[in-house]
Amino acid sequence: MPAEFDLIARHFARATPFRGDVAAGIGDDAALLLPPTGCGIVSACTALHEGVDFPSDTPPGTLGRRAVADGLRLLAETASGGPPPRPAWALLGLTLPAPDEDWTREFAAGLAAACREAGVQLVGGDTTRGPRAVVCVVHAIVLPRSG
Fold first, then answer.
1. Residue 88, exposed/middle/buried by CB under 10 A (0-12, 13-18, 19+)?
2. Which of 27, 39, 104, 131 is the 20 to 30 Å CA partner of 58?
3. pTM of the full predicted structure?
4. Is 147 a domain residue?
C-alpha cells in the first residue's frame, strides 16, 4: 500500500504504551520482544472480515477496540487455573480497500484506547490493500507456576 510507513507513523507508532521489553517494534512487519527470563509467552489471534465478522457500517473505533478485546478475552481463557497471562504486545494486520484517513484515524484511536487500558504496546504488523479485514495477534507473558 502506498505510504504505508506514513500511515503507521501518523496513526499507530506512538498511539500505545511504550514498554521497556520491546527491543525493536513498530515500523516493520516484525518485532523483537524481550520477555522476562523463565517466563512463557501465550499468543491469541483474531481475524475480522467486513461483511462476515462485522457489518460495513461498524464504527471504526469500535472495530479497533474489538480487535484487541477479542484477543485479550482469548488470552484470559488460556489461564486454566494457573497465573493469569499478563498482556504485553500486539501485532496488527490491517487490510483496507483504499486509503481513508478518517476511517484509519478513528480505528487507530479505538485500538490505542484498548491497548492503553490493557498495558499493551503495538509492536508491528502489516498494512495492505484489499477487502477490509483486521487481524490482531495479542501476546502475553506467562509467569512460571510456583510449586
1. buried
2. 27
3. 0.80
4. no
